[in-house]
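Hey, resending since the last one bounced:
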Amino acid sequence: MRLLIKFNLLLVFVFGVSIAITAYVAHDFLQHNAREEVIQQARLMMGAAGGMRTYTSKQVGPLLAAHQSASEDFAPQRVPAYSATEVFNYLRREYPVYTYKEATLNPTNLRDQALGWEADVVEEFRNHAERKERIGQRETPEGPSLFLARPMTATPECLTCHSVPSAAPASMIASYGPDHGFGWKSGEVVAAQIVSVPMSVPVGMADRAFKTLLISLSGVFVFTLALLDLGLISIVVHPVDRLSRLADEISKGNLHVPELPAKGSDEIAQLARSFNRMSQSLAKALRLNEPE
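The C-alpha cells again:
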C-alpha cells in the first residue's frame, strides 16, 4: 500500500496546485462579476425610477393639477422627483442597502440638494455633455461605496415650475419659498440620478461564490481521488502485491506457486506473463540440476 500512499501524495500535490491557481484566477473574476451584477441591479432600479418619473409627469401630475384648486396646499406627489424618490424608498424595504437620490444643484425641495461629491458628479456631467453614465467608488464612514449616476437635464416641462418664481404655482411657492429651485435653463444638466450601494454587497456576493467554488472543487477532488484509488488498487496495487508475495515465496525456495492471472495486454499483464515464464524456467532449471 506504500505505492498507493505515494500516488495519493502526488495527486494531492497536483490537485492542490491546480486548486490554488483556479482560486487565484476565480477570485478576481468573481469579484468583477459580482460588481457588474450589482451595477446591473442599480441600472434596473434607476430605470424603474425613471419610469415612475414619466408616469408621474404624464398622468399623475396633470390629474392632480386638474383637481387641485389654487388655494389648496401644493401636492408634492405631482412632482416626478418626489414620486421617484418615494417609490424607491418603498423598494428599499426589500433592498435596504440601495439608496436613490436625484442630486440637484438648485432644487426646490432641499432634501434633493447635491452635497459634496454629488455636486462634483453633476458638474462632471455639465462639463462633459457626451457622458451619459458614471460608475465610481467613494469612501464613507461605513466603508467603500459603489455608485451609478446618470445626468438629468431640464426639459420645457420643467421650466413651467423652475424658470422664475412668478411662473411657478402659488401653492409651490408657499410650500418651498421663492429662493431656490429657479433659474433652470432648457437642456441644461441640473441634477444627477444616483444609486448607491456599499461595496460590502458585491464583495459579500463574491466571497460566497468563492467559498461555494472552493467547496465544490474540494468535493470533486475527494470524489476523484477515491475513484482513482479504487482503480489503482484494482488494476495496479493488488496485482503488484500478489507478484511481490509470489516472488518472495520463490526466493525462499518454494517453487510450487500458482501462476499469476495475465489477462489483457497492458504492462501489468505482460509483467505477470514474464513472471510466470521466469518461475517455470527456474523450476525446470532446478529439476535438471537435481542428482539422479
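Residues 42-199 form a domain with the Beta-Lactamase fold (CATH 3.30.450).

Sorry for the duplicate.
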